[in-house]
Amino acid sequence: MQIQICDYIIGADRGALYLVQHQITPDLALGDFDSVTDAERERIRESSRQYTDCDAIDKNYTDTELAFNRALAMKPSQITMFGVTGTRLDHTMANIHLLRKAVDAGIMCRIINDHNIIMLTNSTVTLQTNNYPYVSLLPLSLTVTGITLTGFKYPLDDATLHIGQSLGVSNEWDDVDAATIQVKEGYLLIICSRD
To answer: How many other β-carbons are positioned within 10 Å of the β-carbon of residue 92?
Structure first.
């Protein structure tokens, strides 16, 4: 994915350092910056259009959620999060759960890494087929009802998924340009994956 000139770029904690190191100027760098050195913190401060730091102990949110909340407050048409999955499963899960805040605010949000695109819906989503050949559907609420899939190898019609089931794992695109996922009630994770 390319960064467009109209995009507003927020770097959270060490993510801001990554941007700066790759000649991308953050519009906003924020966090407690406990994962960078003092010299790196100064480099971030000097290389960002705006810099906001907070106390590492006296805060109620992760740095990613602080950045996410700032993005939500701007009411954009879409939010894309990079670098928010990794070796810390607790942070990865918390960041996936942030998608619900975006859905509730009516804002399209995606998490993208080298192997996955992760989204959440409680209504209808049309996806362009892409080079992620597997599409998995997992409930993020106890139950998701009225799941109807078109454009998939294994379609569903008014199906129900309960949390703890693997029925929705590893579907594939049918021979189409676009596919649709419809949900009547509940929150459904959509994970497009590749090995």
So the answer is: 16
What is the C-alpha separation between 30 and 156, in angstroms, rounded?
Answer: 43
Mean pLDDT across the chain = 95
Residue type, 91: H
Question: Cα angle vertex 23, ends 93, 52, to 5°?
Answer: 60
Residue 2 DSSP symbol = P
Alpha-carbon distance 117 to 96, whole Å? 11
pTM, two decimals, is 0.93
**Which run of H or E residues covers position 12?**
strand 10-12
- The pLDDT value recorded for residue 57 is 76
Residue 152: C-alpha distances to residues 76, 112, 168, 195 (Å): 30, 21, 12, 19
Angle, CA of 34, 118 and 27, to the nearest 5°: 45
The tokens of 80 are what? 């894309």
Helix ranges (H only) for the chain are 14-21, 38-47, 63-73, 89-104
Contact predicate 64/71, CB 8 Å: no
Mean pLDDT of 108-122: 97
Closest to 91 (Cα-Cα) out of 138, 41, 137, 31: 31
Q: What's the length of the chain?
A: 195
